[in-house]
Amino acid sequence: MVAEGLRKRFDKRWALDGFDLAVPAGTVCGLLGPNGAGKTTAVRILATLLRLDGGRAEVAGHDVAREAPAVRRQVALNGQQSTVDDVLTGRENLVMWGRLYHLTRRQAEARADELLEQFGLTGAADKRAKHYSGGMRRRLDLASSFIMRPSVLFLDEPTTGLDPRNRGEVWREVKRVVAEGTTVLLTTQYLDEADQLADQVVVLDTGRVAAQGTPDELKSKLGGDRIEVVVRDAVELPLVADVLGPDAEVDPDAFRVSAAVTDRVAALTRVASALAAKGVEAEDIALRRPTLDEVFLAITGHRAEARA
Amino acid sequence: MNAVKFAAVDSWVVAKRDLIHWVREPVRVFANLAYPVISVLIFGLVFGSAMNVFGGGDYIEFLLPGMFGQTIAFGVGTTLMMVSMDADRGVTDRFRASSMSQTGVVAGRSIADLVNSSLELLVLALCGLVIGWSFHDGLLNALLAFALLLWLRFALVWIGIYLGLLVKPEAAQASWMFLFPLTMFANTFVSPELMPGWLRVVAEWNPLSSTVAAARELFGNPGVGGDSWAAQHSLLLAVLWPAVFVAIFWPLSVLKYRNLSR
Lengths: 308, 262
Known about the structure:
heterodimer; A: 308 residues; alpha/beta; Rossmann fold; Alpha-Beta Plaits; 2 domains; 6-stranded mixed β-sheet; 36% helix; B: 262 residues; mainly alpha
């Protein structure tokens, strides 16, 4: 999947303004950004749902503008909302999509049974989808995207609105299909989701790529690991700061002192014994990599929150 | 050849989905049917005794074709609702991003809506027969009248699709507020001749009036004719008006569908 200089305008605003992307086959790319950054627009263009105003894009070897039908045969789209039909049973939902993808009735039924099995829905196959949990609906929705074994899957905020347990279930399914060789373009506002699933993260801000790299690369751009010490008594904060060295940052409200370190575990032992020698009893000592939230803040200069 | 076959399969699959909805959630069908049936009883039996048919005749005989017409016109609300819900839930996007035939989506919509409206007409007709309505010019003419009503319904499918792609479901819900007066400023319940001048013109030229007047003529029910050109050429207009709607809203819908949220 390749995009070069994608531009898309809604009224007078550029939703995408020179967006580049390159996703190797069989990998997961996470598109990260707040609401309005252009994530969904990018996905909709690549899935042939929106026409582009500039640039070019190729998905599964076909140009999205000139060869849309060929692209459509290779991709599947899972939007933000569930397209599961509540009144139909799980199996009927899958058979319906199978028929719309032009399988014969028998093929559609066989494929539905396979997918129900793979996505752990066999037990609920003949229940109407309105009785499904949020996670089951998502899984059914995902399963319906896999009817034609697409080589590229677009997941637009797949776990928005799900509780942690259901998110875990969906993540597991996504990892499974990636292991089978599907290329995935995932958009998300959840930074831990990109961290969990993506080989490569692209941070979008107002229609442009603000940064990209592996989740680890992005985090190390922020100066790598930090050690954090939390104490019970504010009086002890200066003592801890002494131990952590000249770069230590003190957060008096949280009773916390932190500093960048390079030697990870060695630093942890060193700090722990130095604190013990000074008689400081730490509430908590931890090594921490910066969260993608912090990465986002550092890259774009504003928080990863929905902006009006 | 394949394209035709796939269009047929796709439209059947889409239509079947809606028909399953109606079978499994009959509350909606009953709600849809209850309104016209209750209206027939209220207008026919309660107000009926105080109603005059311009030019004479039995009010229930006059009313039933009007009720058929109103039911058909309300159908546009059903189409609008279903289309805007599919668009809102992302189902339409899934359809568009798949290799399914795009004709199939709308053809399926038309089939399901026409089946639904036929059922409503059937129930209304039975109800009418019970309280004293009948057709007097033969079964063939009666079937022709129903065909004209469904022809209008088919045209309204396209208006419904276009508007449904344009608005959110909440707005689609509000469409009843506009539909209701549109079906009343017509010859459905009262002869336009009895209305004040300006409203009379509106009612006479209301496309729904043409279909209703044509149906009255074919059923042999009272209230046919009038001074206006529109009233005198109701059969012609009952064919033409829907054709005009189709000619305008078919291309508009196709265009809108292709360019959704450009």
